[in-house]
Amino acid sequence: MMAKFDFDLFVIGAGSGGVRAARVAAGLGARTAIAELHQLGGTCVNAGCVPKKLFYYSSAYGEEFNDAKGFGWETGSPRFNWQQLVQNKDREISRLNEIYRKLLLDAGIAILSGQALITGPHTVIINNTTYTVGRILIATGGRPVLPDIPGGQYCITSDDAFHLQQLPEKIVIVGGGYIAVEFAGIFNGLGVDTTLVHRGRLPLQGFDHEAREMLTHEMQKKGVRLLLNTNITAIEPDADRYRISYSDGNRDATDLIMYAIGRRPNTAGLGLEKSGVKLDKNGAIIINSSYQTDIPSIYAIGDVTHRRQLTPVAIAEGAALARSLYGNQPAAVDYSNIATCIFSQPNLAMVGLTEEQAKSQYADITVYRTSFRPMKHTMTGNNEKTLMKLLVDNATDKVVGAHMVGMDAGEIIQGIAIAIKAGATKTQFDSTIGIHPTAAEEFVTMKQAVL
Ligand code: FAD
């Protein structure tokens, strides 16, 4: 019998969510195509998590060479080569792009390179060819925005930061989210004179207040200049530098200005106006709890829906949607207790509720907190501190939040997240025997309640 459509599922965007949805759908027997405008792997692989973490590792060495002296190493005067880092990072990303290509092809998925345009509930055009499709999945992610101020066009975004020809001597980064904070740590660690400008009182809104304060302090100790409650009002080019005017009347000059003030969903040029898919005021695609838009055959997942903008969330949504469409399972993603880490220096990681949220949601919360100098730094002279917090609902004894600022916080909180997701109580944390000597063992030995 002739198939009714060219493909059962047409995925637009081969990023974290799109690739997972396509692979799961194909594995369940759906004839699947995936369209990609740029490189396979999307933001995470090409301009997000992966290159960011590689740059983060590189920048951490600056401090580690210094720390090594306390342990008897003579490191001389290490020299850093930015071009080498960028080249090695690009090689690694090309390797990942190829892995993605192979995974998709091995799953029998048709890869179509180009910009996809939706022309109806069951039709997509790409490279002048029209395909008829049973269902369309929009997984087009988001893009960084530039400021609407005089001179805003001279600024770079995180996309550009991954491809700079050379490292600036001085950079001003604007933003209070994780991308701004992480890049401030990266540039500072690489020896760039770094200023972080944020319009609010503290960066990282939505994270635990005490953890935010602690991280801000640690960043300052490491040399990042923070201009809080401040904004840039105008930028003017001046020879090969830029003059900056601040909202408080101060002025400055710098080699580079990077904006990380948020990301917008990628919906332009998709043909959504004509197809009847509705957007919210942020330009995000509106979906129901089954990831379905107003048009029953069109779905959306990941950053283009402008909700939790994290790779593992996009992946979970892609898998859940494909299983529901082609495997008869409910499209259910549990969004509770999503652990997350800011790859700042030091890391800030959390799972569950902040102290502020816990106190407003529960009648009786006990806060357990410890702050200490990590063992490694007893020999290095590095005065970085670690903070750990557990929030316990006294009515049930359940741990409802865990926070850490310190070395490897992301690695440690990932394990704690499983316990919290499983509903572990403080008594169970306490009866867990620690791994000694680690910083992580503090999470199972916290006896001191903060009143
Ligand atoms: P994307 O991965 O953005 O994929 C969308 C794809 O669609 C892109 O490849 C795009 O080219 C393509 N596309 C768009 N329009 C079209 C079209 N019309 N036709 C064809 N193709 C199209 N998340 C974490 O969990 N941890 C981190 O540490 C982390 N760090 C980050 C650091 C930075 C600097 C950035 C920018 C993001 C980071 N993220 C991180 C977020 C993470 O990258 C995103 O949440 C994730 O990539 C979203 O996946 P997605 O599938 O929704 O979209």
Write up what this structure looks like.
The protein is α/β, with parallel strands linked by helices. Helices cover 31% and strands 24% of the residues. It has 12 helices and 22 strands. Strand 11 and strand 12 form a beta hairpin. The protein is globular and about 75 Å long. The model has no long low-confidence stretch (mean pLDDT 96).
Compact summary:
This protein is an alpha/beta fold. It contains twelve helices and 22 strands. Helix content is 31%, strand content 24%.
Bound molecules: flavin-adenine dinucleotide
Strand content: 15-25%
| Global shape | globular
Oligomer state equals single chain
* Share of helical residues: 25-40%
Give the structural class: alpha/beta
The biggest sheet amounts to: 7 strands, mixed
- Mean pLDDT metric: 96
Unreliable residue runs: none
Distance between the termini: 72 Å
Nearest-angstrom radius of gyration? 24 Å
Q: Count the helices. How many?
A: 12
How many β strands by DSSP?
22
List key phrases describing it.
single chain; about 450 residues; alpha/beta; seven-stranded mixed sheet; six-stranded antiparallel sheet; 12 helices; about 25% strand; globular; binds flavin-adenine dinucleotide
